[in-house]
Amino acid sequence: MGERTESNQTAAGPTCGRGRPRDAGRDRALLEATVQVLQESGYGGLTTAAVAKRAGVSTATLYRRWRSKEDLVVGTAVRWASDLGPQPDTGSLEGDLAALLRDKAETLEGPGGRLLHVLIGESAHNEALARVLDTAIIEPVRDRAATVVDRAVARGDIPPLEDAHVLADLVVGSMVSRLFLTPDAAHRSGTDGPSSGEAAIRELLPFLLRSLGAQPG
Protein backbone atom coordinates (compact mmCIF):
# COMPACT_ATOMS: atom_id res chain seq x y z
CA MET A 1 0.00 0.00 0.00
CA GLY A 2 1.43 3.44 -0.93
CA GLU A 3 1.59 6.49 1.26
CA ARG A 4 -1.66 8.36 1.63
CA THR A 5 -1.40 12.06 0.95
CA GLU A 6 -4.54 13.37 2.60
CA SER A 7 -4.19 14.79 6.09
CA ASN A 8 -6.53 15.69 8.91
CA GLN A 9 -4.88 18.88 10.12
CA THR A 10 -6.53 18.75 13.54
CA ALA A 11 -5.80 15.13 14.29
CA ALA A 12 -4.17 14.64 17.66
CA GLY A 13 -4.51 10.90 17.92
CA PRO A 14 -6.08 7.77 16.49
CA THR A 15 -9.10 8.17 14.27
CA CYS A 16 -12.33 7.24 15.99
CA GLY A 17 -14.65 4.78 14.36
CA ARG A 18 -17.33 2.23 15.03
CA GLY A 19 -16.77 -1.40 15.83
CA ARG A 20 -14.82 -3.16 18.52
CA PRO A 21 -12.57 -1.06 20.74
CA ARG A 22 -8.99 -0.53 19.58
CA ASP A 23 -6.16 -2.41 21.22
CA ALA A 24 -4.26 0.14 23.34
CA GLY A 25 -1.18 -2.07 23.12
CA ARG A 26 -1.15 -1.77 19.33
CA ASP A 27 -1.59 2.00 19.55
CA ARG A 28 1.41 2.21 21.88
CA ALA A 29 3.49 -0.09 19.66
CA LEU A 30 2.74 2.05 16.60
CA LEU A 31 3.67 5.27 18.41
CA GLU A 32 6.92 3.80 19.69
CA ALA A 33 7.72 2.43 16.23
CA THR A 34 7.09 5.88 14.77
CA VAL A 35 9.72 7.43 17.05
CA GLN A 36 12.22 4.68 16.17
CA VAL A 37 11.72 5.04 12.41
CA LEU A 38 11.88 8.84 12.64
CA GLN A 39 15.15 8.61 14.52
CA GLU A 40 16.63 6.28 11.90
CA SER A 41 15.23 7.78 8.70
CA GLY A 42 13.92 11.27 9.47
CA TYR A 43 10.51 12.58 8.47
CA GLY A 44 11.22 12.36 4.75
CA GLY A 45 12.24 8.72 5.03
CA LEU A 46 9.37 7.67 7.28
CA THR A 47 6.67 5.54 5.66
CA THR A 48 3.58 4.05 7.19
CA ALA A 49 4.68 0.66 5.84
CA ALA A 50 7.97 0.90 7.76
CA VAL A 51 6.19 1.91 10.96
CA ALA A 52 3.64 -0.88 10.64
CA LYS A 53 6.37 -3.45 10.02
CA ARG A 54 8.37 -2.26 13.02
CA ALA A 55 5.25 -2.43 15.20
CA GLY A 56 4.34 -5.90 13.90
CA VAL A 57 0.96 -4.89 12.47
CA SER A 58 -0.51 -4.42 9.01
CA THR A 59 -0.70 -1.04 7.28
CA ALA A 60 -4.49 -1.46 7.31
CA THR A 61 -4.34 -1.55 11.11
CA LEU A 62 -2.30 1.66 11.11
CA TYR A 63 -4.67 3.44 8.71
CA ARG A 64 -7.65 2.57 10.90
CA ARG A 65 -5.98 4.74 13.55
CA TRP A 66 -4.24 7.47 11.55
CA ARG A 67 -5.17 8.71 8.06
CA SER A 68 -1.67 9.67 6.91
CA LYS A 69 1.92 9.71 8.05
CA GLU A 70 1.54 13.36 9.05
CA ASP A 71 -1.40 12.45 11.32
CA LEU A 72 0.71 9.63 12.74
CA VAL A 73 3.59 11.98 13.60
CA VAL A 74 1.20 14.54 15.08
CA GLY A 75 -0.46 11.85 17.18
CA THR A 76 2.91 10.62 18.37
CA ALA A 77 3.96 14.13 19.37
CA VAL A 78 0.77 14.62 21.37
CA ARG A 79 1.25 11.25 23.06
CA TRP A 80 4.77 12.01 24.28
CA ALA A 81 3.95 15.62 25.20
CA SER A 82 1.15 14.36 27.43
CA ASP A 83 3.81 12.85 29.71
CA LEU A 84 4.46 16.40 30.98
CA GLY A 85 1.62 16.25 33.48
CA PRO A 86 0.45 18.64 36.20
CA GLN A 87 3.17 19.81 38.53
CA PRO A 88 2.72 19.31 42.26
CA ASP A 89 3.21 22.33 44.50
CA THR A 90 6.57 21.81 46.22
CA GLY A 91 6.09 24.88 48.41
CA SER A 92 8.96 26.90 46.95
CA LEU A 93 9.90 28.55 43.68
CA GLU A 94 13.21 26.68 43.60
CA GLY A 95 11.48 23.32 44.11
CA ASP A 96 8.78 24.01 41.52
CA LEU A 97 11.30 25.23 38.96
CA ALA A 98 13.65 22.30 39.57
CA ALA A 99 10.73 19.89 39.03
CA LEU A 100 9.81 21.60 35.76
CA LEU A 101 13.41 21.48 34.54
CA ARG A 102 13.73 17.82 35.54
CA ASP A 103 10.53 16.85 33.73
CA LYS A 104 11.69 18.69 30.62
CA ALA A 105 15.12 17.05 30.77
CA GLU A 106 13.56 13.59 31.06
CA THR A 107 11.33 14.34 28.07
CA LEU A 108 14.19 15.63 25.92
CA GLU A 109 16.47 12.71 26.81
CA GLY A 110 13.76 10.15 25.97
CA PRO A 111 11.56 9.42 22.95
CA GLY A 112 10.04 12.90 23.13
CA GLY A 113 13.46 14.43 22.56
CA ARG A 114 14.11 12.31 19.47
CA LEU A 115 10.73 13.34 18.13
CA LEU A 116 11.41 17.00 18.90
CA HIS A 117 14.59 16.81 16.82
CA VAL A 118 12.48 15.80 13.82
CA LEU A 119 9.72 18.35 14.41
CA ILE A 120 12.16 21.25 14.71
CA GLY A 121 13.69 20.42 11.34
CA GLU A 122 10.40 19.80 9.55
CA SER A 123 8.34 22.62 11.09
CA ALA A 124 10.14 25.25 9.01
CA HIS A 125 8.29 24.05 5.90
CA ASN A 126 5.35 22.08 7.31
CA GLU A 127 2.64 24.23 8.87
CA ALA A 128 0.80 21.34 10.54
CA LEU A 129 3.94 20.11 12.28
CA ALA A 130 4.82 23.67 13.29
CA ARG A 131 1.42 23.96 14.97
CA VAL A 132 1.80 20.70 16.84
CA LEU A 133 5.30 21.68 17.94
CA ASP A 134 3.77 24.75 19.59
CA THR A 135 0.48 23.37 20.90
CA ALA A 136 1.56 19.87 21.97
CA ILE A 137 5.13 20.45 23.12
CA ILE A 138 5.73 24.14 23.87
CA GLU A 139 2.30 25.18 25.17
CA PRO A 140 2.22 22.64 28.06
CA VAL A 141 5.55 24.05 29.29
CA ARG A 142 4.16 27.58 29.05
CA ASP A 143 1.19 26.57 31.18
CA ARG A 144 3.42 24.87 33.75
CA ALA A 145 5.75 27.87 33.86
CA ALA A 146 2.83 30.25 34.38
CA THR A 147 1.64 28.13 37.30
CA VAL A 148 5.14 28.19 38.84
CA VAL A 149 5.29 31.98 38.55
CA ASP A 150 1.76 32.51 39.89
CA ARG A 151 2.54 30.42 42.97
CA ALA A 152 5.79 32.29 43.60
CA VAL A 153 4.10 35.68 43.27
CA ALA A 154 1.29 34.59 45.60
CA ARG A 155 3.88 33.51 48.21
CA GLY A 156 5.69 36.83 47.86
CA ASP A 157 8.85 35.11 46.62
CA ILE A 158 9.12 37.27 43.50
CA PRO A 159 7.47 40.41 42.11
CA PRO A 160 4.76 39.98 39.47
CA LEU A 161 5.98 39.37 35.92
CA GLU A 162 4.58 41.13 32.89
CA ASP A 163 4.58 37.85 30.94
CA ALA A 164 5.05 34.60 32.85
CA HIS A 165 5.42 32.68 29.58
CA VAL A 166 8.88 34.16 29.14
CA LEU A 167 10.00 31.66 31.78
CA ALA A 168 8.84 28.82 29.52
CA ASP A 169 10.89 30.23 26.65
CA LEU A 170 13.94 30.30 28.92
CA VAL A 171 13.34 26.74 30.10
CA VAL A 172 12.74 25.26 26.65
CA GLY A 173 15.44 27.26 24.91
CA SER A 174 18.06 26.59 27.57
CA MET A 175 17.37 22.88 27.87
CA VAL A 176 17.27 22.36 24.10
CA SER A 177 20.54 24.24 23.76
CA ARG A 178 22.27 22.30 26.54
CA LEU A 179 20.98 18.84 25.58
CA PHE A 180 20.82 19.09 21.78
CA LEU A 181 23.41 21.66 20.74
CA THR A 182 26.22 21.48 23.30
CA PRO A 183 28.92 19.05 22.08
CA ASP A 184 29.91 17.60 25.46
CA ALA A 185 26.30 16.89 26.47
CA ALA A 186 26.02 13.99 24.03
CA HIS A 187 28.97 12.25 25.69
CA ARG A 188 28.32 13.08 29.33
CA SER A 189 25.66 10.37 29.78
CA GLY A 190 28.33 7.71 29.29
CA THR A 191 30.37 8.88 32.27
CA ASP A 192 30.01 8.13 35.96
CA GLY A 193 28.99 11.74 36.67
CA PRO A 194 25.56 13.34 36.50
CA SER A 195 23.47 12.87 33.38
CA SER A 196 23.37 15.64 30.80
CA GLY A 197 19.94 16.65 32.08
CA GLU A 198 20.99 16.81 35.73
CA ALA A 199 24.12 18.76 34.83
CA ALA A 200 22.02 21.24 32.84
CA ILE A 201 19.61 21.67 35.75
CA ARG A 202 22.45 22.45 38.15
CA GLU A 203 23.77 25.09 35.77
CA LEU A 204 20.45 26.64 34.79
CA LEU A 205 18.49 26.67 38.05
CA PRO A 206 20.48 29.42 39.84
CA PHE A 207 20.41 31.59 36.70
CA LEU A 208 16.66 31.18 36.23
CA LEU A 209 15.98 31.98 39.88
CA ARG A 210 17.99 35.20 39.68
CA SER A 211 16.30 36.15 36.41
CA LEU A 212 12.93 35.92 38.20
CA GLY A 213 14.13 38.12 41.04
CA ALA A 214 14.78 35.34 43.56
CA GLN A 215 17.94 33.94 45.08
CA PRO A 216 18.91 30.25 45.17
CA GLY A 217 18.31 28.63 48.54
Automatic annotation (TrEMBL):
Renumbered residue ranges of the record's region Disordered: 1-24
Gene3D superfamilies: Homeodomain-like, Tetracycline Repressor, domain 2
Stored InterPro entries: DNA-bd_HTH_TetR-type_CS, Homeodomain-like_sf, HTH-type_TetR-like_transc_reg, HTH_TetR, Tet_transcr_reg_TetR-rel_C_sf, TetR_C
Residue ranges constituting the HTH tetR-type domain according to the UniProt record: 24-84
Keyword terms: DNA-binding, Transcription, Transcription regulation
Transmembrane segments: none
DNA-binding region residue numbers: 47-66
UniProt protein name: TetR/AcrR family transcriptional regulator
